[in-house]
Structures are given as structure tokens and as C-alpha cells.
Design brief:
The termini are far apart. This protein folds into 2 domains: 6-82, lambda repressor-like DNA-binding domains (434 Repressor (Amino-terminal Domain), Orthogonal Bundle); 97-134. 66% of the residues lie in helices and 0% in strands. The chain contains 7 helices and no strands. It has 134 residues and is mainly alpha-helical. The longest helix is centred in the last third of the chain and has 31 residues, at 99-129. Helix 1 (6-17) packs across helix 2 (22-29).
Amino acid sequence: MNNLSADSVLDRLQLAAGVKSDSALARTLDVNRATLGNWRNRNSVPYSFCVIFSVENHISLNWLLAGQGHMTYDEAEPSSAALKSDHLRLIELFDALSEGQQQDVLQLIAEKKRLNDLEKAVQDLQRTINPSIT
């Protein structure tokens, strides 16, 4: 079985949650049992569920999603627990969009970053030309 498959991710979720069935996992994740079946059939587990579960349960996201490293993370290391609630909310909202909408959002973000980079470059150039500009 592929470590990156939905089956593998759901199996690791069961292990981390200390449950032995999809029904028990569905109760733990507060989703319908049929939802887990759909995730298995589509080979896709929503990233937001994984991130939230990881943060709330101190589970390594790398382990949960890819089966790499240890199940729990060391609190001293930077981890998914460092994600702010705003970041988690952003992930939830992003996951709720269609694939096309997600692509649109990514393009808008990339464009905004490009504009910010250009504005910074212009400001740096202005400071180089005229050091008295703050």
C-alpha cells in the first residue's frame, strides 16, 4: 500500500486516534461514516482535517500525511502546532473551494506577492537614489 494513499492516511488517523474502525474514526473526526468511505474511494482526505487533527493531537503532520518520521512531534521543534488559528481557517476555506477556484485564489495570491515585491524593489531603489527618503 502506498504511504501517501488516502487508505494509508486514514489508517494512520485510526492509529493516532486509538480506534480500530472507520465508524469509530468518523465519530472522532465528527464526520459521517459514509464520508470516510468517499475519501477512501476518491483517494483523497481533506488537508484541513489532517492539519486540525495533527495540531489538536500533537501528531506530526509529516507522519500523518506521508508516514515519515515519528507519530508525535517534539514540542521544541517547529511544527504544525505553530500554525495560527487564522492559518487553519484559511486552509479550511481553501479546501472548501472547487479546484478551479483554488487555482484562481493561488493566482491572486501570487500576483499580490509579485506586486509587493515590486513595491519593495521601487522603495529600495528610491532609497539608493535618495538616501534621505525613509
